Amino acid sequence: MDLIPPLESHLLDPVARHFADQGYAVAAEMYYNHRLADVVAVKDGRVIAVELKLRAWKGALKQATAYQVTAHESYVALPLVVALPLLRRPSHFLKEGVGLLGVNHPHGDVRCLIPAGENKRLLPFAAERIRLAIEALMAEEPAEAAPQV
What is the C-alpha separation between 140 and 11, in angstroms, rounded? Predict the structure, then answer.
């Protein structure tokens, strides 16, 4: 049994379900702030952005840090076997205030290994724009193409 899925997209459904089960409205592969966030979740006016990667956690951390301008919380989601060793030296994530999610492949459960910290980069008007876009998207049938915000 391979603990790392062959495609990054195999992490998408478990992460989206993780937030949907907590009552979040979830959009996948949403363009905003000139970037493509893999998962964006909204609940009670709060925006969460998640970057999915199979192994390249440093690149994912940079992308998740950039999402902080428009998201109250930002996470990197990795296969659990890739994410667990990062707990030995969590300083990269803690310094940026980015959380770490571990996806237990192939079972699909998601564990929050490092909660997202205080976000000092947030521009509230930008987060509000994302929230409104996702709420409008959820009010309609989800489109095939990724929404532009």
Answer: 25
